[in-house]
Amino acid sequence: MTEPQHILVLGGGEDQLPAYHEARRLGYRVIGVDRRPDALGAAASDLFLCMTTRAPDRIAAMVGHLDVAAVISPASDAAQESVAELSRLLGTPYQPAPDAVRASVDKGWFHTVLDRLGLPGYAYAQSSDEAELRRAAADLPLPVIVKPSDSSGSKGVQVVADPAALPGALAEARRHSFTGEVIVEEMLLGRHLSAEAFLRGSTLATIAVTERSTTGAPHMITTAHTVPAELTPSTEIRLRSMIMDICGELGHTDGPVNFDFVVDAADEIRFIEMGARLGGNGMPLLVRHAFGINTYEAALRLALGQPTELTPRHHRKTALRILTADTDGVLLGVDGTDAVRALPETVELQLFAEPGSRVHRYTQAGHKLGYLLLVADTHDALRAAQARAESLLRFRIEPATPRAASAAAPRSEELTEQIR
Residue limits of the ATP-grasp domain (predicted)? Predict the structure, then answer.
């Protein structure tokens, strides 16, 4: 009897875990790779390698004796270079376009692609030299955004409104950069949106354009997505055309791709960054509930060299809320889960932390505590359902550092963190 083939999944977090389950459902064994021994993917793997995903030669040497049919890494820009190299080393069917990989891991280079295409841009500077970055920042209007050029998940991202805070922000961004490169950008004003798309044969097979909410300054971390975004027809047509121009320039003809962008008061579209992979922060879940499309399966089948199915089964207004806490500490419990699940608009509630586990203030995407998915007939109904759910759902957290005894709030309130 022939042994089942393996699918190699780089990363073992909450946004990679569904790929493990999909691979198993399709009849494959799973090799998981993550540097964290307690990663969610560890328990879901047939073989788990506790190591960095950024060492393709070492990974290939450890799995080369196995029949690896595909390599995938949803939601991780950092692993895309390894996906490309492992696909080459292991001879799997899907080979990512090199320029699309580079645009995913080098924010400054992505800006140069936009410049080549003549698409609207904005001021930025990228360098590993702090003095050069400080000089560039001095020429930009405050506030500016400082971030690693090659990281994802909002790690090391800060809005800087005071020049005195710039050196600290540069150092923090560099700490999260694999190459030491940091980018300083003009801060764009307008509506923050995202596009989660999937190309097939150089055509846009599906796209979900979402209204994106963030924490605001200083970290600008995503807190929610709502689909469909309320765009004018002409803006949506321009967006689709611009996305196809970018993908064509990068040679990205097949597969998932996501973009963050801003639409300003003049209805101008300015792209911020992209990733030639499935999006993070639960975007595939959002697409599944909004359109009935399983992009995890589609991405796996593409990596396996198989036909993909991307036909929408329905169109529903859907909101995804990222559940977070406002303090570091130990999770004591979660109240209101049954009541939230009983709401007619709730289609899915996922929690990633269990009572007794350590949780962290939401300063990067990896600190999320769960996802809440809601569907409704109108955007107003979605907003009302979200407000109702937030009033019911609470994490009880014992802070890592006890609050001052003089604090006005009683102890019971100190231990309760409302979902933001």
Answer: 111-304
